[in-house]
Design a protein that fits this description.
By secondary structure, this protein is α/β, with parallel strands linked by helices. The protein has helices spanning 43-50, 72-78, 94-104, 111-120, 135-146, 165-181, and strands at 4-13, 21-28, 31-36, 58-65, 68-69, 79-82, 153-157, 183-187, 199-202. Helix 3 packs across helix 4. The chain starts with a strand and ends in a 9-residue tail after the last strand. 36% of the residues are buried.
Length: 211
């Protein structure tokens, strides 16, 4: 994997009324940036903007790999993203879901490779359909999905949500390892069970009329 870089410049997002957040800027080439703040301040929205799943009201996002800026379409496949509203096909197994998404991205789904990815998140041997998965099992599958295409940039929204102690430990190790390879941006209300991030971006609730 080559070098990667993600940069946000002056990002703001409004739906109606005052901005949800405004003038968010950062640069990350390696390591972990933690986006934190109370619920409802726009952490999930910010990560979706970084992943090119939503558009900012103003500002820009640049993702570069080996010195070349990715287009918006390339960002959607070149950035690994995991969030609470990530959809899986409930009638398929975890392995079948990953195989489907890998095939949809234009890659051959090798069973041994996909099994290894499931094992890495503690889902080895999970043969049942996703419809019957617990909350924690679905969260582990979301993390596996974020890694599916070996992305140079990883974005994780509340990665510890719904996990037991073993799962939280596994995700914490994954975050630390991924940060050694390239940029990781994660949104979390509570950072206490994650490795200390290299940078922290706090988004606070805006009040009407506040700059």
């Amino acid at each position: 994997m080559g070098s990667a870089r993600i940069e946000a410049v002056g990002l703001s997002k409004s739906f109606s009324g005052p901005p949800l957040f405004a003038d968010v800027s950062f640069v990350l080439e390696r390591g972990v940036l933690a986006v934190t703040g109370p619920n409802g301040t726009g952490k999930t929205t910010l990560l979706k903007i970084l992943a090119a799943l939503s558009r900012p009201t103003s500002g820009t996002v640049r993702v570069e790999v080996d010195g070349r800026e990715l287009s918006i379409d390339e960002r959607r496949s070149g950035v690994g993203w995991s969030g609470p509203d990530l959809f899986f096909y409930p009638e398929l197994t975890a392995l079948e879901n990953l195989a489907f998404f890998r095939r949809a991205a234009g890659f051959t789904p090798e069973s041994a490779d996909l099994e290894a990815r499931l094992e890495a998140v503690g889902l080895s041997g999970a043969r049942g359909v996703v419809e019957h998965f617990s909350t924690g099992m679905k969260q582990r599958l979301r993390i596996a999905f974020a890694l599916l295409l070996d992305p140079p940039v990883v974005l994780l929204d509340e990665p510890l949500s719904g996990l037991d102690a073993q799962g939280r430990g596994a995700v914490a190790r994954f975050v630390a390892d991924a940060g050694q390879r390239g940029p990781v941006v994660l949104a979390a209300t509570d950072l206490t069970e994650l490795p200390p991030p290299d940078q922290v971006l706090e988004i606070r609730r805006r009040v009407n009329g506040e700059p």
